[in-house]
Amino acid sequence: MTSPFKGQTGLKRILNASGYSLDGLIAAFKGEAAFRQLVLLNVILIPVSFLFHVSRGERAILIAVCLLALIVELLNSAIEAAIDRISLDRHPLSKNAKDMGSAAQFVALSMIAVVWALILLG
């Protein structure tokens, strides 16, 4: 059985997907303080990356790890929303899912610190 939401193809599908993506970004920005904080961090760090005398490849990595943290936060927020949609009751599996999402974000933020330190100090 196929999903009724999978009927579009071609340009229509791309336009629909773009709209859904924009809706997701807006929802994250409006509803998730952590996402807003990461956007601010990106607004600061990405322009700052152009102030350092590093290769284009190194600059790309500095920027990529910042954007990766945004991606991880979007996924973490999606996991939390899905868990909360299922039930607001406390359950060990729900806690594990939320904690793992949080851990993924911790790793992503740690990666920013490590990569920036290695490139700028190394």
From TrEMBL:
One of its GO terms (biological process) is phosphatidic acid biosynthetic process. Catalyzes the ATP-dependent phosphorylation of sn-l,2-diacylglycerol (DAG) to phosphatidic acid. Involved in the recycling of diacylglycerol produced as a by-product during membrane-derived oligosaccharide (MDO) biosynthesis. Its EC number is 2.7.1.107. One of its GO terms (cellular component) is plasma membrane. A divalent metal cation binds at E32, E80. The active site is at E73. CDD domains: DAGK_IM. Its cofactor is Mg(2+). It is found in: Cell inner membrane. It comes from Pseudomonas abietaniphila. Keywords: ATP-binding, Cell inner membrane, Cell membrane, Kinase, Lipid biosynthesis, Lipid metabolism, Magnesium, Membrane, Metal-binding, Nucleotide-binding, Phospholipid biosynthesis, Phospholipid metabolism, Transferase, Transmembrane, Transmembrane helix. Mn(2+), Zn(2+), Cd(2+) and Co(2+) support activity to lesser extents. This is Diacylglycerol kinase. The chain crosses the membrane at residues 34-54, 61-83, 103-121. It is a multi-pass membrane protein. Belongs to the bacterial diacylglycerol kinase family. Its main location: membrane. It comes from the Bacteria.
